[in-house]
Amino acid sequence: MDQRDGLKLSYRPVTIVGVNETTFDVRTNAAVSGLASNNWRSGRVTTPNSPAIFYAPEGTKNVSSTFFEDFAQDIYQQDLAGIKTSAQNRTIMVFSGPPVAERSYGRAWGFLSAISCSASNLKNGMKLINATSPSNWTTAWSNSRFFDATYGGTYPVFAFSDSSFGMDATYVVASDRDISGVGNGDYIRSRVSNDTTTQPIQGALEIAIWQSIPEGFKPDDGFKNMTSNPLVTRLNDSSVLGYGVRCTVESDVGYASFDAATRTYSDFVNRAADFGTQDLTTIGSIIPIFQYPGVFAIQSIVFEVLSTFSLGYMGPPSCGGGSDTTCSAFYGANLATGGVPRISQVGDSQYAKALQIPSITPERMTLAMYKLFGETASAMMAIGPGNWTSGDLKGLDPANDMIAGVVPWQLVLVLLGTWAVLTTLPQLLTFSQARWSQTLEAYAIRRFGANWRDAT
Q: How confident is the model over 271-282, as a mean pLDDT?
């Protein structure tokens, strides 16, 4: 047996460095979306910062600390292989517990979400966006004719076009969740009763995207492969390729029990967050509208990341594309999924070189959306007032585990040799010794009828 460092359950409360049900809504949407956007664009593995982790539903086997990333990457590989999967098999359910100072077990308040994303053909796979071209699209909130980003932020639709880094990209983002309710979080307890509001919150978010290669640049392999992808439509037989990605999500907040050994949660009970702003009329004259507290639904936060709007505030997005060509959702999705730019020759001169980013296939954009929703689910609990303890959440203490060790082959050989010697040596010694038997007297010989020749 070998000794190995391990952990054992303790009765010591752990320090929680994030929000709980009383402080969850005392934040702005911008704070949550900003953290989600930065982590998404870093291209990192989608998981909370250790030792905080995502928890999988009870009964899930072999849950790693990066199981959300593992799930998204598995879907990505299946999509690349053309394997058809049901919406149920594409749905990942994850509980984001409070960020902690150490690995923990017990019961705590957190954010629960179920996320499913898939690429769709623009002709028949989208429900929120009806689009035939980058300049001809319609949603329930606006359309290509009347949309003006300068006055956006109060309805969940956004359109953006950019031509930079060797790629022309236009995309439209739409959510089915109203974002005009400034100062009213979507996960709060009702002000008129202790009942929860409309939880769990169900909804969807879609992005329609078109890509083309500017003159002078060469298409990469991803763009070439898209020309034969059944999910991709070609605009009027031109070089403009388009497709969509649709994500459905269900989210809730409440208490769940954690298992530190299996990284799973169980016994979820809904418990809405406390109302963070008690008197909006008082603070309304002090701070700008976009600084109002109140966290919107996860699909609205994802919309804020992709659009760079300030939710509920009528004004332009922070990403205009004029001075910063890296703030777009297209560029961010490239960063999130490991897109590697290359130096392209764009002219005859040896100095006619330019940086070109990869095109984004439907499979890779689906992966990017999974990762963005995952980072947003993590950000929902990752920031805010913290440094407190809960009697229901305990830590783990060091322990020594005994495990089966590996026996060296030399020792096995010695033991076998010793066994062989001990079992054969007595037999060999027997042949080298005289054998003695009891001498029979005449009476005994006669009794047993011993004969010697003709005598008895």
A: 66
